[in-house]
Amino acid sequence: MDAQGYVQSHNGHGITTIEFFHPKSNSLPGSLLNLLAQEIHYAGLHDSKVIILKSAGQGAFCAGASFDELLAIQTEKQGHDFFMGFANVINAMRKCNQLIIGRVQGKCVGGGVGLVAACDYAIALNSAEVRLSELSIGIGPFVVGPVLEKRMGISAFSHLAIDAAMWRSADWAKRKGLFSEIHETLQNLDESVYRLASALARSNPEAMKEMKKIFWQGTDHWDALLAQRASLSGKLVLSEFTRNAIAAFRKKD
User: Fold this and answer.
1) Taking each helix axis from N to C terminus, what angle separates 222-236 and 76-95, rounded to the nearest 10 degrees?
2) Is 194 within the bounds of a domain?
3) pLDDT digits (tens, 9 = 90+) for 168-182
4) Cα–Cα distance measured from residue 180 to residue 123, given in angstroms and rounded to the nearest whole number
5) Number of domains into which the chain is organized
6) Is-contact 139 73, C-beta < 8 A?
7) How far apart are CA 10 and CA 102, in angstroms?
8) Contact 43/51 with Cβ under 8 angstroms?
9) Can you give the residue range of the structural domain that contains 97?
10) pTM exceeds cut of 0.70
11) Is 245 part of a structural domain of the chain?
């Protein structure tokens, strides 16, 4: 558990629920990213039949990278290591044998949009807007790019990446394939999440494992690709432009 946040798992009836929390709109510092990757990897190796990924509270699902940690980066290696946190989570999600249901109760920014895209099935509240803000702080959605392109297509991904200041609605995200379902109330959201999780927990695990292999075909090179993207982001985050942009963004936060 991080001093200012946590990642915790609960297993029951074949369903593993992995929940993360950070007081700053469920943003993800490196420590929580590492814990999240570990919990997903662990769940993938054990008796779970399906995984639910969720964040705590009724606010933002995930505000993406921690601005405090971005500003603290002093070397390219530190930058690479930080962005590898997101790469490791995405790779853990695509490699685990279980299908992952994302429960998205609020807004998603940057790396948070990448986490949703890495879920096999995402169920969201109708107020769960999405935005890729990376370009507005001097970097780009490089690490999350491959999973967003795979989930939504290059056109929708480029729209999000280029207009970095614009929020896109949950309905837009559903039409582009990021969300599988959207619901009007938290109660309906949770009922749908647990209905599907319970159905999958009763399904043939070998069949679901083979389905997941098909869904993620063509991504075997992502270990190397996402590491390259992490290095690119790690270099850009050290530029004067980016540091000034992050500092200005942080003041608004």
Assistant:
1) 150
2) no
3) 999 999 999 999 999
4) 6
5) 1
6) no
7) 15
8) yes
9) 6-185
10) yes
11) no
Q: What type of residue is 246? A: I
Helix (H) or strand (E) holding 232: helix 222-236
Assigned domain for 251 exists: no
In a domain, 149, yes or no: yes
What token pair was written down for 117?
């895209």
**The residue to which tokens 């039949």 are assigned:** 49
Residue 195: count of CB within 10 angstroms of its CB: 11
CATH of the domain at 168: 3.90.226.10
Return the amino acid letter for 114: G
- DSSP secondary structure, 155-188, as one string: HHHHHHHHSTT--B-HHHHHHTTS-SEEESSHHH
Quick: pLDDT tens for 63-112. 999 888 988 999 999 999 999 999 999 999 999 999 999 999 999 999 99
Q: How many CA atoms lie within 13 A of 74 on its CB side?
A: 1
Q: What is the radius of gyration, based on Cα positions, of the chain?
A: 17
The tokens describing 2, both together, are 């991080």
